[in-house]
Design a protein that fits this description.
- A hairpin with a 2-residue loop joins strand 23 and strand 24.
- It is built from 8 helices and 31 strands.
- Helix 4 runs antiparallel to helix 5 (189-201).
- With 511 residues, the protein is an alpha+beta fold.
- It has a 6-stranded antiparallel beta barrel with strand order 7-16-19-18-17-20. Strands 29-28-27-30-31 form a 5-stranded antiparallel β-sheet.
Length: 511
């Protein structure tokens, strides 16, 4: 009788233990599932904050591979270094920020993009020439001989009324002697008038006839003088030469008015019209301006220079210009047009594109590709890429139009815009930064014909921490004495293929 209650009690205890165990297992599994899910949600929704600076972090990345982003800190899978945070308060900005002190050291100046009403125009070159419409000729009206030539060579300056040549005219002797004989014979006035008419028909000047009446002596010489002040542009005779009726002895070109022949590029040929204003200067004195209006467009395009010629008349009363001068010409349009202008020194032209360094609203600098038009004085027209009121860098010290600038400055700015913000601050080794060469100390881990692997110390100029990485050798036989395990000081620079070593020497020899 007593065994049954004991058996029943044992069964109850066993069942209670079984239920308790099952409940514990189920509860543990549920708690595990619930806890795991909570951790996952917490991890997904956690606010990523840098405990050191209390700033919100967008992501972490390896500075050597900036395009690869990570959700949490840790060691870089690419290099032997820790991932670096990119903060929310600057991760969305583009461009590069330069320390104010460094801006002053670099001499950076800013200019504002502005819109201005200017007349459509362009720059060209022009050449001064004699005004052929003002040229005079010295011509013989008789047949004779050059008795004396006063003009010795072409391009000789002469004044109005100056003698050019003296002619001996033997045919003048007979009519003059006949006139004197009639006058001595007391012939009637009709005979004398007929004799005078004959002398005028033979081109004997009235002055010679008057002198004949006054002196009673025949003259066989006549002096031909310059009709204008200028230069003898052509001289076609020499002393003693015979000249015939109507022969041109010389040509005299005036200098008070000159032609300016402007070479118009073929691409602008359709935009040029008579009446457009021209402002011309020459290199010896750019403050002197000579103005005029295009009088006519000469037909035909030069096959050698592919230019169209336009002609105008300019005033040269002061005789400062001479034919053949090369002049800088600004051809202005007939109507004013609005242009967006920037200083010409702010534009970097690479050959394939034109770039300006623009200043963002938050003070960062960013390269902007622009389309440029014509130059307007010291400014350049911008067709696209900028807007009125923007600021651009316009300092000659910063925008050096050189291969070094185009291959290093612009890619670094664009790299900063793509990979996140960057800041330039004054460096403790400005000479090394300027030369793009960096130095540090490290232990040689591996040497191959193509590179050397170092476990090196931080490189502050590049923002690198201590890491292990490989550097290219300039040649397979370079640095033959370097062995694994040595501690060395090495220098390197950035190249198209990565980072290339320029110097490796033992620490004991480094100064």
């Amino acid at each position: 009788m007593q065994s049954k209650p004991l058996a029943r009690a044992a069964l109850i205890l066993f069942g209670a233990a079984a239920l308790l165990g099952a409940g514990y297992v189920a509860g543990t599994w549920r708690a595990s599932e619930t806890g795991s899910s909570a951790v996952t949600v917490t991890s997904a929704n956690a606010d990523k904050t840098d405990p050191k600076s209390d700033r919100k972090v967008l992501y972490w990345h390896d500075p050597m591979v900036p395009n690869q982003h990570f959700d949490k800190p840790g060691k870089s899978p690419f290099m032997d270094m820790q991932l670096q945070p990119v903060y929310a308060d600057e991760g969305g900005a583009s461009g590069i920020r330069i320390d104010p002190g460094l801006q002053q050291n670099l001499g950076i100046r800013y200019a504002t993009v502005r819109r201005q009403e200017t007349k459509e125009g362009f720059d060209a070159v022009g050449t001064t020439q004699f005004d052929e419409s003002k040229a005079d000729v010295v011509q013989s009206r008789v047949t004779g001989y050059i008795d004396h030539l006063y003009a010795s060579a072409p391009m000789q300056r002469v004044t109005k009324g100056a003698p050019i040549a003296s002619l001996f005219v033997p045919d003048w002797l007979a009519p003059q002697e006949e006139y004197l004989a009639l006058k001595r014979g007391a012939m009637d006035d009709g005979m004398l008038a007929a004799s005078r008419a004959r002398m005028r028909a033979m081109s004997i000047p009235d002055g010679v006839v008057a002198a004949l009446d006054r002196t009673g002596k025949a003259q066989t010489h006549v002096v031909l003088s310059s009709p204008e002040t200028g230069v003898v542009s052509e001289l076609n005779v020499r002393d003693g030469a015979m000249v015939t009726l109507g022969q041109t002895l010389a040509k005299v070109a005036g200098l008070s008015k000159l032609w300016l022949i402007v070479e118009i590029p073929e691409a602008l040929a359709l935009t040029v019209q008579p009446g457009m204003t021209v402002d011309a200067t020459f290199a010896s004195d750019p403050t002197q301006h000579f103005n005029g209006k295009i009088r006519e467009i000469l037909p035909g395009i030069s096959t050698s220079s592919r230019t169209l010629q336009a002609r105008l008349e300019i005033d040269n009363t002061a005789l400062k210009l001479t034919p053949g001068m090369l002049m800088r010409v600004r051809v202005g349009g007939n109507k004013a047009v609005s242009h967006l202008l920037v200083p010409s020194e702010a534009v970097i032209t690479t050959g394939k594109r034109s770039v300006v360094i623009a200043k963002n609203s938050d003070g960062r600098l960013q390269p902007v590709t622009v389309t440029i038009g014509n130059d307007v004085g010291n400014e350049t027209e911008v067709l696209s890429g900028l807007s009125d009121g923007e600021q651009v860098v316009a300092s000659g010290q910063f925008l050096i139009d050189s291969e070094a600038s185009l291959k290093s400055v612009l890619p670094r700015l664009e790299g900063g815009a793509g990979a996140g913000p960057a800041t330039l601050a004054p460096s403790s080794a400005p000479a090394a930064t300027a030369a793009q060469t960096y130095e540090t100390t490290g232990k040689v881990e591996k040497v191959t014909p193509g590179d050397i692997t170092f476990s090196h110390q931080p490189v502050p100029a590049l923002g690198w921490g201590a890491m292990t990485m490989s550097f290219n050798k300039p040649a397979p036989d370079a640095f033959p004495d370097v062995k694994p395990g040595e501690t060395v000081r090495f220098a390197f620079r950035q190249s198209d293929d990565g980072y290339q070593l320029t110097k490796v020497e033992p620490v004991g020899d480094a100064k």
